[in-house]
Amino acid sequence: MTLPPGFLDELRARTPLRGLIGRKTRLLKSGRNWKGCCPFHGEKTPSFYVYDDHFHCFACGAHGDAVTFVMRADGAQFMEAAERLAGLLGRIGSLNNSGERLCRNSFVSR
Ligand SMILES: [Zn+2]
Question: Which CA distances in Å does 75 have to 30, 44, 96?
Fold first, then answer.
């Protein structure tokens, strides 16, 4: 299974990273970014920062984008993570331009 060109870029651009990560850990505003306790290692002082397009933990070095976050947080494979994100965004129908359905009925469409 291949992804349509530009699919991942669009997925990354459209995913509200703060909303996605905010489901796993509580985020506090820090300047124009957000910070919270890292969901990937136990900590009491927030060293996990969320930026517009990526996250970074200054304690354990966890780093990545929306797809990476779902992979690490949910233990998902790359494609699974991409599908899950696409499902969250409700964009399945319009992403079906490679002649192949990206996801099945388990995902809500708009
Ligand atoms: Zn960490």
Answer: 28, 23, 25
